[in-house]
Amino acid sequence: MSISAPRLGEAEEQLVLAVIRSGQLAQGPMVGRLEELAAAMAGTEYAVAVSNGTVALEAALEVAGIGPGDEVITTPFTFVATLNAILRRGAGVRFADITRDFVIDPAAVEASITPQTRAILPVHLYGLMADMEAIDTAARRYGLLIIEDAAQAHGAARNGRPAGGYGLGCFSFYATKNVTSGEGGMVTTSDPNLAERLRLLRNQGMRERYEYEAVGHNWRMTDVAAALAIPQMERLSEINRRRRENASRLTQLLTGIEQLETPHSPEGYVHAWHQYTVLLPPHADRDQVVRSLRTLGIGSGVYYPRLVWDYPPFREHPLVQLAPTPHAADASRRCLSLPIHPDLGLPELERVAQALRSALA
Hints:
alpha/beta, Aspartate Aminotransferase, domain 2, 2 domains
């Protein structure tokens, strides 16, 4: 049983076939359709498709004007793309600790602000939004930009406001995401100037063919990729509903395991449940648990086994500013993600729960 299982069917096949028959394989009308769906999902005026989620982060940071001499505050409990994108802009990074829900702590963010801080980059990890109201309040108080890493948060919301609707939102359509195009990304915004700048830069700095207005990039998404994602975006509410139901069932099935911490969706939140991530008991040998689950036919994932800076390229990087983040450190030691994808029913979830109980016995 795999940790993720993309559901691609006849609707995706038909749209991809239509693209192939059209002869318009590169960026075209399918990309435009996907952008409309993404803007609706994020509650923004604009969405600009790009080639992948990492590019979405890099593009957002570039159009926001982040560069050398600036600092960006983010979480140390994230995928390396978050950190790479900031460093590639020549900006410094400060890390703020997370809450017990795995997302960045607004109080820790505010305590990390310095005169060099230009932006806050929260990560909506596993499909749960950070407390964006508190982060937005801090950003307004100190005159900071917000760039949301919403790579895992398609359809997530807090108090009715969707992920990707604050400042610049960055989504991924990688193969394991709730909506996938194999590779793909999206930047959402309600600022027309930022949207226009994104479109200009993604197309080699061209507004019209061979009329160059800026030093640009090739950030374009293909129509083939967009065609894969469109039907999933159209049924996103159903995809997330199934994941939400499976998360609730699995939590019930895991009740009573001593010192196991299961995830939840706080009041006022819509959790996208990209991952169902538990914290194993402190005494558990996670590697042995993973091996035991695998032996029993259950896939799992460790997202993420170390804090993002705790690797050779970053430990002594001059632009990486370290600070104690005990909650993030604890999560990296104990986190384990279990399958809840829409293809699973109650019998499969019972297998997952029984396997974990056996692995922890």
